[in-house]
Amino acid sequence: MKKKFEVNDSNPRCPWCLGFQEYVDYHDQEWGVPVRDDQVHFEFLILESAQAGLSWATILKKREGYRKAFADFDYRQVAEFPESYVQELMQDPGIVRNALKIRAAINNAKRFMEVQKEFGSFSTYIWSFVGGQPIQNGLQSMDEAQATSPESDRLAKDLKKRGFKFLGSTTVYAHMQATGLVNDHLVDCFRYSAVKP
């Protein structure tokens, strides 16, 4: 019988992360921390668009594979990936081998730089959708968690208009949660106050 995973401390956490150690580490160190760095935003855009239709746990386990395959998430390099490299990536077990998602990542790198040119940074652009400050949802339980919001609807619509792919409202909301535009830690989670500005 498989041994049940146990966290080695007594900190109260959001229950969704209690599956394996990398998930707990991600929850404790990254999820919900406000991100203003464009390269980190690009990393999460790649990972979240790859996640569409899959579990985040699957993508988290492949994160290092993505780091290697996508030039350490350097959007300038990704934007220049040729079609021959797409075919190479289709053989790489370290990532999700979906040609549409791989091509979307290359396309999104180009669109990402267009946004940077227009707004000065991608961070300035994306934070404008929440008025520059994280939305504090104050969730009491996972039953109150949502998959989209009016802000993610607007952002997804704008990204689509700008030519981004595989970034619908649900995926965009996951990005907002991950990069701290939204604080969706439960109020009794030890990280809820830690990520508040």
Automatic annotation (TrEMBL):
Pfam families from the UniProt entry: Adenine_glyco
Coiled coil ranges: none
Signal peptide: none
Annotated transmembrane regions: none
Classification via InterPro entries: Adenine_glyco (IPR005019), DNA-3mA_glycosylase (IPR052891), DNA_glycosylase (IPR011257)
Protein's name according to its UniProt entry: DNA-3-methyladenine glycosylase I
Organism: Algoriphagus halophytocola
Organismal lineage: Bacteria, Pseudomonadati, Bacteroidota, Cytophagia, Cytophagales
